[in-house]
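Treating backbone geometry as a discrete language has practical consequences that deserve illustration. The sequence in question and its structure tokens are set out directly beneath this paragraph.
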Amino acid sequence: MRSFQRHLGDFDARGIRVVAISTDATDVTRRHCQKLGFTYTFLSDPKAEVIGLYGLVHQGAGPGGADIARPAEYLIDSTGIIRWMNLTESVTVRARPEQVLKAWDDH
């Protein structure tokens, strides 16, 4: 997440809007963003409704067996079509900003 913050200028230059979504409550997400200095959009989906629509619920993988969002990165165009995605099974494995930017540039 921090690496995406550091590369916001690269995303902005390409017209890419970075958005994150998690199962954390809104107040938890807000505090997290303030603490870490994130300036891109973070959405809160505590009932995992949107996360579930994308098939990204990692059941029981969070603290105390809570459901969390599976790490995933998507490039979605302005018409809502998914142009690229990266899905992982581990909460510790995520795409690097450079991978996402390369996927955009190669598209």
